[in-house]
Amino acid sequence: MTVKEYLSQLDDLNKKIRHKKQELKEAKRNRGIVIVSDGTDGKVQTSFTGSTGKQTESQALRIVSLEEDIESKIIEYMELKHELIDQIHDLKDGLCIDILYHRYVRSEKNFTKIACDMGYSYKYIINKHGEALLAFEKTHQELFTDESGK
Questions:
Q1: What is the 3 state secondary structure string of the chain?
Q2: Domain range holding 60?
Q3: Which residues are CB-neighbours of 79 under 8 A, at least 6 positions away?
Q4: I need a surface site. Which of 40, 56, 72, 112 has the fewest CB within 10 A?
Q5: Among 40, 59, 82, which residue terminates a domain?
Q6: Which residues contact 87 (CB under 8 A, 6 or more apart)?
């Protein structure tokens, strides 16, 4: 795994969460889930209805499974985010820390915007990003050494 791939895990996990949430939304819509609230006591009643108008256990189980999967991925995301932030902060150069934080934790993909926000030129930030990746790899070489010791 490369340094970029390692640092991009957070963005990849965030995409998975968004996709699962969309899948859940579609599953609820396509499976006839009706949410009823009278708006007075904050209680919500959910009704699962199939094409025949009957509640189906498999529909309910699928929804619950998706919700549990999303919750699990959110917890995984928060733990990974905390770990990556700590690893990024192990670097000595404050600018490298800021660049990696913006790029991989905040998922800012536009180097022009990052450069503008930080008050540097685009070219300088691109070069510094490369230095930051090398510094991260050197600082955390145990993450990037394969089993054969290379």
A1: CCHHHHHCHHHHHHHHHHHHHHHHHHHHHHCCEEEECCCCCCCCEEEECCCCCCCCHHHHHHHHHHHHHHHHHHHHHHHHHHHHHHHHCCCCCHHHHHHHHHHHHCCCCCHHHHHHHHCCCHHHHHHHHHHHHHHHHHHCHHHCCCCCCC
A2: 1-82
A3: none
A4: 40
A5: 82
A6: 136, 139, 140
In a shared domain, residues 32 and 102: no
Instruction: Indicate whether 91 pLDDT > 60.
Output: yes
The model's pLDDT over 29-59, given as tens digits with 9 standing for 90+, comes to: 776 555 555 556 655 555 555 555 455 777 7
Instruction: Give the Cα separation of 33 and 67 in Å (integer).
Output: 14
- Same domain for 12 and 69, yes or no, is yes
Q: Which residue has the tokens 């022009």?
A: 112
Q: Are residues 74 and 28 in the same domain?
A: yes
